[in-house]
Design a protein that fits this description.
CATH topology of the largest domain: D-Maltodextrin-Binding Protein, domain 2
Radius of gyration: 23 Å
CATH superfamily of the largest domain: Periplasmic binding protein-like II
CATH architecture of the largest domain: 3-Layer(aba) Sandwich
Distance between the termini: 59 Å
Number of strands: 10
CATH class of the largest domain: Alpha Beta
Number of domains: 2
Structural class: alpha/beta
Strand content: 5-15%
Length: 295
């Protein structure tokens, strides 16, 4: 074979490779979430924002399950990213005691996620969703309490209701036990979606909820201050696979546009629109993006 034929074949091979590369589709980005309202709303916000910025469909696997199930889905590549909380990474994934120092918790979580699993923890979305101990407003006024330390002095004791995760996590019930709250009945574990109804119906007199729950925006509830800082810092962030970010260079800049865009008050309103007003999460997410100038 002559030199010209060899050069011609080489050129043909290079052209074929280039055309194949141009014809290949970018890897599908899959946005996941855990199985409660706030996570689904955040998942929709992230997915819709990426679709707008990247100009292509983004697959959703929302409402997957609890922390460990969703985190495992990220590790095995079933999803590309999902919203997570720094205090949850600290307690549930790193198995470390909760810390109220938000900057320290974020940096520790970011470094360990990158070192252990090649995951990227992006800067906070703008709010902290810590555990919140909630009582009826009328009960708080009658007992003249606004903090958990004051609640520890209520003589008749409390009937406590909580979700299953709070009962089992080291940053949940063990952290609350530092206050030595008097109990008039054994604490009750229930589906997280039922705790506010149980409180309203008088089945329990205190519940372990979350600071950005939608119900807090609409009803006469009192959140008792964690004055001894027993609970950790739970900044809402996006946890993403580094290999997916590397494969799509526009992904991380698009995700960073969401950093700092949500306050606790805003998140409560978004959650209330779904939980109280029964509006579709996708619609609520679209309106938020439009009002924030991101769509």
């Amino acid at each position: 074979m002559g030199r010209k034929e060899i050069c011609g074949l080489t050129l043909l091979a290079l052209v074929s490779m280039a055309l194949a590369g141009c014809g290949s589709s970018p890897k599908t980005i899959v946005v996941g979430s855990k199985n409660f309202t706030e996570q689904v709303v955040l998942g929709e916000i992230i997915a819709q924002h990426l679709e707008h910025r990247l100009g292509r469909p983004v697959r959703r696997q929302l409402n997957l399950g609890g922390t460990l199930l969703t985190y495992q889905a990220l590790l095995n590549g079933q999803i590309s990213l999902y919203p997570e909380y720094t205090g949850t990474i600290e307690a549930e994934i790193l198995k470390e005691p909760p810390s109220p120092d938000s900057a320290q918790v974020f940096e520790r979580s970011r470094l360990e996620m990158a070192r252990r699993e090649q995951l990227d923890l992006l800067p906070s979305l703008g709010f902290d969703n810590s555990f919140a101990m909630v009582v009826r407003g009328e009960d708080a006024r009658r007992e003249k309490i606004s903090t958990l330390s004051q609640a520890a002095g209520v003589k008749h004791g409390w009937k406590l209701g909580m979700g299953y995760e709070f009962a089992s996590r080291i940053d949940g019930m063990p952290a609350l036990n530092k206050y030595h709250l008097p109990m008039s009945a054994p604490p009750r574990s229930m589906d997280l979606g039922l705790v506010y109804k149980a409180l309203s119906d008088g089945q329990v007199t205190m519940i372990a909820a979350n600071a950005t729950d939608g119900q807090l925006a609409r009803h006469d509830w009192t959140v008792l201050a964690d004055d001894q800082h027993a609970f950790g810092s739970y900044q809402a962030c996006i946890l993403a696979r580094q290999d997916v970010e590397a494969a799509e260079p526009r992904l991380k800049p698009a995700l960073l546009e969401l950093s700092g865009k949500l306050s606790s008050e805003t998140m409560r309103k978004l959650n209330a629109a779904v939980d109280v007003d029964h509006r579709p999460a996708a619609q609520v997410a679209a309106e938020f993006l439009a009002q924030s100038g991101l769509k």
